[in-house]
Amino acid sequence: MTGETPDPDEAATDPRTPPSGSDVAAVDVDLDALPAIPRDEDGPVFAEPWQAEAFAMAVRLHEQGVFTWRRWAETLGEEIRAAQEAGDPDLGDTYYEHWVRALSRIVAEHGAVSGEELEARTDRWRRAYLATPHGHPVELSAADE
Amino acid sequence: MTNDHDGGHDGGHDHGHGHGHDHDDHTEPPSETALRVKALESLLVEKGLVERPALDTLVDAYETKVGPRNGAAVVARAWTDDEFRRRLLDDAPAAISSIGITAPKGEHLVAVANTPRVHNLVVCTLCSCYPWGMLGLPPAWYKSAPYRARAVRDPRGVLAEFGTHLADDVEVRVWDSTSEVRYLVVPMRPSGTHGWSAEELQELVTRNSMVGVEPARSPEVTS
């Protein structure tokens, strides 16, 4: 029941065994050095439309079998750690930035969209915006005019 | 594990926008990340790997339909139906599908129940795995590094910040979600709700109570 794909990496972990308990708090950690947890009201879950798009793309690609959810979680976890190491306080507001970096990387790793392709297309969209008069819908083809 | 994602991230895309010329002759591009999302989407659609309508359906479902409502329905049912509660704690996906709720693919759910002696708290220390199918999308604090770190190191301190103060003899269990197992806390049924229907009880089941940072709402506070 722990998942369809047995993996030696996660063998022998019973999901019903709590990996940590209250006694973990005894570890010597300077709790005061950790910032407070940012709180929110039950506001909109996506702050901007691109966040929703990025979320949906990852879910859909997984549903289509492009990558496993385990691989996704690993990739996202790595991007979050990398961002923290680069100085991101990681308070939740940059979560979808990490998400997009993970998505860019995982589609390249799975041969769906290469890094060069993505760079080129990103640049083309930028040029399309700059070539589109304000108030008009931005079409990709505007970049080529 | 190497991370070279920063290579090319800020790589020389600093186009000057030439302030001073006519504002109407161009559209200000959105952020680098938003542009990248547009690029990914247009490429993936062209390659037939995602379809626009499927993306729209997903976004709509998570923004407006899922929310924490599925989870609240499951918890309220568990409060009013002992047989369902037993099945839920034993095999959550089967119990949930038996009442007509389908969890997203790949989301294996485990339900853990609070009791007078045990309080459960859910975190994802690795990224921010979350039972979307039950609770919608996670709040910002759940995704934040301080919560992810402190829920494990100092769960009682975290609970106190949410106004949840547990007696010393209550055991705190912290459940670390993974890409394959997500946890749903079944909070204790509030007192003063004797005879309430499952529909009425649902209103007391908050998102935070199902993550385990707060108890379910008390009936006096609802209206």
What's the topology here?
The complex is a heterodimer of chains A (145) and B (223).
Chain A: E1 20-21, H1 49-63, H2 69-85, H3 95-109, H4 115-131
Helix pairs in contact in A: 1-3, 2-3
Chain B: H1 32-46, H2 52-66, H3 69-80, H4 82-90, H5 92-98, E1 108-113, E2 118-123, H6 132-135, H7 140-143, H8 145-153, H9 155-161, E3 171-176, E4 181-186, H10 198-202, H11 207-211
Parallel strand pairs in B: 1-4, 2-3
Helix pairs in contact in B: 3-4, 4-5, 8-9
Tally of helical segments of chain B? 11
Mean pLDDT of chain B: 85
* Number of separate helices of chain A: 4
Class from helix and strand fractions of chain A: mainly alpha
Going by CATH, the homologous superfamily of the largest domain in chain B would be Nitrile hydratase alpha /Thiocyanate hydrolase gamma
The greatest inter-chain interface is formed by: A-B, 93 and 86 residues
Low-confidence stretches of chain A are: 1-35
Our Rg estimate of chain A from Cα atoms comes to 20 Å
The helix-and-strand class of chain B reads alpha/beta
- Total strands of chain A: 1
Give the CATH architecture of the largest domain in chain B.
Answer: Alpha-Beta Complex
Helical residue percent band of chain B: 40-55%
Shape of chain A: globular
Number of strands of chain B: 4
Task: Give the H and E element order of chain A.
Answer: EHHHH
Oligomeric state of this protein? heterodimer
